[in-house]
Amino acid sequence: MKIKEKGTKKVKSTKKIKKKSVKSKNLSEVTTDEFFEDDFEVDDDNEKEPVDSDSGESELDPKEHKKSLKKLENTDPEFFKFLKQNDKKLLEFELSDDDVDQDSDDEEGVHVPDDDLAVNSDESDYEDKEVIKNQAQGGPVKVTLKLLKKWQEEIQTDKSIKTIKCIVEAFHAALLTVADPEESKNVEYKVDGSAAFNGVVQLCVINLPTAFKKFLKITTDSRFEAHKSKRFGKIKGILKQYLTDLLQILEHVTSADIQVVLLKHLHQMMSFTQSFSSLNKPLLRILLKCWSTGEETVRIVAYLSIIQMATTRKESILDNLFRTMYIKYVENSKFVSSNSLPGINFMRHSLAEIYMLDHNLAYNHAFLYIRQLAIHLRNALTIKKKEQFQAVYNWQYINSLKFWCKIITLSKSQSMLRSLLYPLVQIITGTIKLIPTSQYYPLRFHCCQMLITLAKETETFIPVLPFLLEVLNSYDFNKKHQRSQMKPMSFMCLLRVSKAQLKENGFKDAIIEDIYQLILENAANDSHTVYFPDLYVPCIIQLKSFLKKCKVGNFCRKIKQLADKIQENRQFVEGERNKVVLNLCDLKSIKNFENQLKVQQSPLSKFYESWFKINQSQKLKLLTNNDELGEYRLLGLKSRNKRRNDDGDHDSDLDMPVEEMNELLEKQADKKKMKKRKNKKVKLSHGDDEDTTSVNDIVKDTKPDDWD
Predict the structure, then answer these.
(1) Closest listed residue to residue 69, CA positions, set 87, 49, 46, 56
(2) Which tens digits make up the pLDDT trace of 177-186?
(3) Three-class SS of residue 643?
């Protein structure tokens, strides 16, 4: 032990200690602090120990120190008694020779390390000590990477449920750090930091499905019933706790990447969840939320689990699943944009597959919801108020019609669902006729597309052409537009156009484009039928009538091409029909004739296939917003100049090709330059002393890239 002197020196020996002021007091009244201050000093006559020059301390011999303490008992028993009562550590002082040789800067004492101290210790030693300390104190054990590695090794060989239980408890602690951090103090384990959290989740995802199967002695990788295993009773509580925690952590996690990992893991555990009927409701709630509102990958993985539940538990959950999924579909199809449209389409197709699992049950739901759509339409037709119109003319109503069209097209001809085709067609046609104004032309085109799809898939004649040809006859395409827009308008995500959009040139272009597409698609579907030449005579007459009235060259070229293709197909079918003798009462021979034409491919069907590929790529480009790359930013140009096209019709400058537009802009810039120079020369000729070389031209060459 080191005894302090006044200042920084420390007394290293207790030989011959002289008292100064202690004689004035009784030893019982002297405190330890007073005793070790300036009241004692070392006798200078004693032999001095060698002193280290750097630290100012002398080396201490523990044997001599012990002898001095024993000698003090004989020389001054009263002082020795005082030390015995107040400072026993000083009398029981023991040091090894190795400890004396260690250098220490601590002025209050010497640190004695543990006997089992290992060489080259690292952070893992600290973690082990902390785990032991927390266990001794009764607190939660901190989950470390070393502990996770230990569990990973043990779960491969452990035949009991001890390691599985530890991992499940750690996963529960990880859940509380996300869901309720305050309750995480009352659990057995403590998960701090993202590294530990990810390690626990990774350990569960990779090892627990195999560990549960191994304990239950399940060898098959296909679907199984875990509750039929003899050892299920031992692991039932742990398994249910883990599945409950897995659902809760899925409900609280917002990261799409973590959701995908957990949903894939849940898909592996679906065979275990069917052993607990109480988990069906929360499981479906979470899966449907991910299916309806998650990102693309999240939706797909969640749907895989949903369809697995639907196929294994038809009797118990299928009715509730039909109703809940349809409501979710309607709720999340309220707003349609280029970003939300792919998700809505995925929901519609996946929901249709679920409904096809049970046609009889699907008929009950379809009858109920189609009747509900008919009631909304009837109220709008009879009451004729704004609220009733809005109940029909919205995206939820249109997307519901699209879904039931999908259901009927997927059903077989003998299915009860086919009996709902007629009422559904009547609802769609009634929706078109409700408000037949130009503002709702986009909605009309969506309904016509549904009718064309129903006619094609069900092989049923549905009159669609009157709704399309009515637009050509009622709308004035010769009317000059008041606003110019370079970006083309698309009705893909529109049901209604605003009054400002009605005045744009893009509105008329979009109408002609959609009419061209729908008539072409409908004619291509009927191109192999025996009645095609007779059915499309009125269509050709009205198309030619439109060509006589329309003065816009681009529109005339498009409609003329459509009429020519239909006329070409009429001649083809008539030629093939004249080669054979058909009896109208013999439906079988007529069907064979139509199948032969379908295999042979009519001219119109060949043209439609090539056109469809180009049109589909343009739609995909529009959905992914790649059309902005090809957009020429010629904003603000409102040229009133007219030019004549090849047909002798007037057209605005904004309808011309981009190359001609650039040439026109350059010519206009050159004219302005020449006019400016002439004005300067006139001023100089009138006596102005202005130097022409110092005058800069204000008007420069104009290029499309400059109009930003």
Answers:
(1) 87
(2) 877 766 656 6
(3) strand
